[in-house]
Amino acid sequence: MRLLVVEDDDLLGAAVHKGLMRSGYAVDWARTGADATVAVGTHKYDGVLLDLGLPDTSGEILLKSIRQRHPGVSIVVMTARGAIHDRVSLLDIGADDYMVKPVDLDEVGARLRAVARRAAESRPSDTELEHGALRLLPSRHVALWHGAEVRLTRKEFWLLETFLRNRHKVLSRSQLEDTLYGWGEEIGSNTVEVYIHFLRRKFCSGLIHTERGVGYQLGSPAVFDA
């Protein structure tokens, strides 16, 4: 599950970011409305944890924008306003849930799981990704190779899902690094290559093709079936 935290307070943002990462989520952290707009425009998120008190834009405006562009994403608002009319207003303009500050990190995780569960239940079925002998069931975290399940770590699964969702594109190292880690987290210079090596070893050497000097692309299904 990939989340976007939108929070300009460094102390709270760092705590929420670290807490969610430790719980096994892939988490990006945006400190402004402008950064959040770029993030939701370039990445696919399962959930957004949104602070309304941003320095450069109204949180309500950003909430409406995210909801219009991504109607399926789960949005939990963090706000200092606890009055009933404020809560009703937030739900009316597109929030799935809200939390009044100060927030508890365990409750943040529970709220996110709850809205994600409701969203999953409202969808008719899992969206299966298929490319030759490779099949991926994202909601069940299952990867199948020629019909047999292949066990993957979270990061291996996230990387493979990114390749499948962009099967006709060459992805740069920086794009793949964003898949593996939240914004601002330090990573090794060869991290992407290491995980690609792991995936090739678990499936086949032709699973991911290297475009030298450009990036990487999912291999041809014909290579998988050979």
Summarize the structure in short:
The chain is an alpha/beta fold.
How many DSSP helices?
9
Structural class: alpha/beta
The backbone outline, from C-alpha atoms, is: elongated
Low-confidence stretches: none
Task: Explain this structure.
The chain has helices at 10-22, 33-42, 59-69, 84-92, 105-122, 154-165, 173-180, 191-202, 221-225, and strands at 2-6, 26-30, 47-51, 74-79, 97-100, 129-131, 134-137, 142-145, 148-150, 208-211, 215-218. The chain is of the alpha/beta class and 226 residues long. A five-stranded parallel sheet has the order 2-1-3-4-5, sandwiched between helices. A hairpin with a 3-residue loop joins β10 and β11. α6 packs across α8 (191-202).
Which helices and strands, and how do they pair?
Blueprint: E1 2-6, H1 10-22, E2 26-30, H2 33-42, E3 47-51, H3 59-69, E4 74-79, H4 84-92, E5 97-100, H5 105-122, E6 129-131, E7 134-137, E8 142-145, E9 148-150, H6 154-165, H7 173-180, H8 191-202, E10 208-211, E11 215-218, H9 221-225
Parallel strand pairs: 1-2, 1-3, 3-4, 4-5
Antiparallel strand pairs: 6-7, 7-8, 8-9, 10-11
Helix pairs in contact: 6-8
